[in-house]
Amino acid sequence: MLLAITRPPTDALAHCALTHLEREPIDIARAIGQHKQYEALLARLGAEVVSLMPEPELPDAVFVEDVAVVLDEVAVITRPGAASRLPEVASVERRLAAYRPLLRIDAPGTLDGGDVMRVGRALFVGRSSRTNEAGIALLTDAVGPFGYSVLPVAVTGCLHLKSACSHLGDGLVLVNREWIDPDALQDVALLDVPPERPGSANSFLVGETVVMAAGSPETAALVRATGRAVETVDLSELRKAEAGGSCMSLVFEA
Prior knowledge:
Shape: globular
Number of strands: 15
CATH superfamily: L-arginine/glycine Amidinotransferase, Chain A
CATH class: Alpha Beta
Number of domains: 1
Helix content: 10-25%
Strand order of the largest sheet: 2-1-15
Oligomer: single chain
Distance between the termini: 5 Å
Number of helices: 5
CATH topology: L-arginine/glycine Amidinotransferase, Chain A
Strand content: 15-25%
Structural class: alpha/beta
């Protein structure tokens, strides 16, 4: 069974943490509607959507990807790099306990799930403003016994690694090389985003379908040209909070 864990945004989204974007007003009602369309798309693609209770005191709680890394054998509960996000962890941890044994990243480590891109048994992990060396080392220790390797990647131009690259399946990675160290992406093939769409590298797989934010038709066409099915969804209001498509769900086989 394919599962997608999500959480709806609330009015608090207007006070989200921002790193690379200037703050601008967010139409919360529209953001909530776009999130519902996002969940509907996941369901249409075959995922059972498990929507967590809203967290009206936590501005970034919609971004559930950041608080866990779900692998086949285990789920690693992260320690988000923004202290304001630490209270988001407990509710996701309780839900994941029904599906996976749990491991945890502890202090002084910090790790955001948006910095972790899985390609087979390799986990590429962004060294970013949210993920530190201690977090990468702790993740390495946690997943090594299950046969996963951890490969650090320097992130310089965006919030998370997966803002700059995402796995399209079969070892092909969609990438904006300007925002990360592309030389660290070992043993994968790279598909460059069009230069006019530098922010369009984020995507994620739901089954065999690549899901990405609407608004970058050139990138969607590039991915379709590889023979992959692509679905897009309007996330324009949510993107004002530095959202990508992948950050708002944890998609895995339950």
